[in-house]
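Checklist before submission:
- one chain only
- standard amino acids only
- sequence pasted in full

Submission:
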Amino acid sequence: MSLPTGLSGASRTAVPPLEVRLLREGIAESRHRVHAVVCDVRGRVLMRAGDPQQLSFVRSALKPFQATVFVASGAADACGCGERGLAIACASHAGTAAHAREAFRLLWGAELEPEQLQCPAPVGGSSALEHNCSGKHAAFLAVCRRLGWSAESYLQPEHPLQQEVLKRVSELLALPAAELLVARDDCGAPTLQLQLAQMALLYAHLGAGGQPDLERLMRAMLAFPELVAGEGRFDTELMRQAHGQVLSKGGAEGIQCLSRVGEGLGVAIKVEDGSARAKHAVALQLLEQLDWLTPITLEDLRHTFLQPAPHLRLDVLGELRSTA
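Returned file contents:
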C-alpha cells in the first residue's frame, strides 16, 4: 500500500527516528526507536522523524473514526446518550464502575442487553462492560439496532457496519477502501494497517472541526476526558491539562495520535518495539517542539509520566524536522 497522491512531502529521506532512553541514575539502561509525523488536512507531511510511511496497525486510535457511523446513522441521538455516550464510544477506558455504567447506559438507551456485547470480560472482571472497548462495541450494537442490521455478526469484516467504517476511513484518506488492509484487533473488532502519515491525516481531520460528525466526537472527548481513558492515564491527563486545545488518543503497540484543535494538524507516533512509556515520552517532546502546551503544563505532565521512580527518568533524543 502506498501513500495517496495528496500525502506529499513524505519521501523516504534520511531523517533519523527519535530515540527514547530509560536512564537509571543517569545511566542508559534501555532504548526505544520511534517514528513520528505531522500532517495537515490536505495530506501534506509538514514535519517528520523517521519514516512517515512506516506501516502499523492503528489499533484503538481508530475508535473515533469507527464511532462516526454511530453519529451519522442517527443511533447516537436515538439512544439519547449525549456527549458522555459519544466519549465512551471512543474510549479505551480503565474498566471502572463509572466506565462500565456509561457503556451500560448507551446499551439501555438503544434497548440492548450487555450479553450482546462480543468483547470479552477482562481478566479478573465479571462483565464485558468492564472491557476497555465496551463503549465501542455498545455503539456498534446501537447502530445495528437503528439500521436493522444483524447484531450477531457485527464484528465480521463483511458486515455492513464494518464496511461503512471502512468506507468512511477511505474517504478521509482519499483512497479506495480495497487498498486498506484489515485484521482482527484484540477485542474482536476489525482494525486497519495504515502508514503513519495516514494516521496523522485522520487526526488532522478529527481536530479540524470541518466535518460535523467528527467535530461532535472531538468535542465529547474533550468534554469528558476521564471517560476516554481514566484517572491518571495519559490521554485523560493530557486532554484535561491542555484545556481543550489538544486531543489525544493512544493505541496498543506504541501507537499515539494527537490533534491540534481548530488548526487541522495531526500527529502520529509509532514505537518500533511497542513501548507505551516511549510513546508518551515522545508525545510530550513533540508537544513542546510544536508549542502546543504551556511550559508549566509540560512540566507537570513530564513529572507524572517521565519519572516512573525517583532513580529513573525517560529521555528523548532527536526532534521533528520540517519537510520544507
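Reviewer check: Residues 1-6 have pLDDT under 50 and may be disordered.
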